[in-house]
Amino acid sequence: MSKPGYRFAVFATLLAVVVVMLGAYTRLTHAGLGCPDWPGCYGFIGVPMSEHKQALAEARFPEAPVEVAKGWYEMVHRYFAGALGLVILGLAVQALRRRGDAGQPLKLPLLLLGLVTLQAAFGMWTVTLKLWPQVVTAHLLGGFATLSLLFLLVLRLSAAVPVMPRLSAGLRSLAAAGLLLVIGQIALGGWVSSNYAAVACVDLPTCHGEWWPAMDFANGFHLTQHIGPNYLGGQLDSDARTAIHMTHRLGAVLVTLVLALLAWRLKRNGLPRLAGLLVLALATQVSLGVSNVIFHLPLQVAVAHNLGGAALLLAMVLVNYQVRRVAVSAAHAFDRQAGLSAMPSK
User: Fold this and answer.
1) 67 part of the active site
2) For residue 293, what pLDDT is reported?
3) Which one of 51, 63, 67, 74 is the catalytic residue?
């Protein structure tokens, strides 16, 4: 039976999915600077709609003409992100009140509260530093981290995993390695997006008709880009963007191979449903990535690719959680059996 707060945590996780989706939509519609200030929009609580307010807004920010649609994309994302912050605050308060209850997580809700506060700062810096790629990528990773930790909280508040003492050696290590690779691939995806490198290659499996096209890795992964320019649309040349894109492709190949091996190992160790879920998430994400290239980054597919990355990450969180819980449960079962065997018979 699930613990108190489980449904609240599920709601927070679903809300985080919406926030991740809205963040992707805002970024992919080039609306990250739809409001040139933070937390308001041209000094208003919402997007200025009347002619008087728009004239006032453009007087305040003459370098940023009002684009109503992009402004609303940005503000709706902020509203939902703010709501998520309040929900996570509620989870933290609830955890503090029930900290004496058996099995009540405390550190995790408090960590989430700190992370979502940091996310608010990154949201501000995304605007004030004019979409500096380092901040945009960190903001994306923070959103995925928030979603992952909320999902982990859901798992910890849910019913226990049944004992299945049939794990082979090294499975937990492989699952952990797979999780790290997925996180790294998401970071690369964020770097692709923040540097507008998604359409640097428009053919498959080659790029510009070559297996190894001209690439500038030094500038493509120059992490100390200076702060100051408006990075909307990107500042890198074609060869640098190609290097970023190709690195993301190679990362996708590596992730696919490792997760396919992990799925096979899961099935061999008596976890076929978990293996099937992982294969489904992986196949969906690979298909969406290929579709982005073939169809030249259609908005719906690009947003779905972001959500697919989130789904794959959550699948890996579930795999690591269940593998660890199964291993711990099996160890406890073995200890209990050994204890009973050692007791003298009457």
Assistant:
1) no
2) 95
3) 74
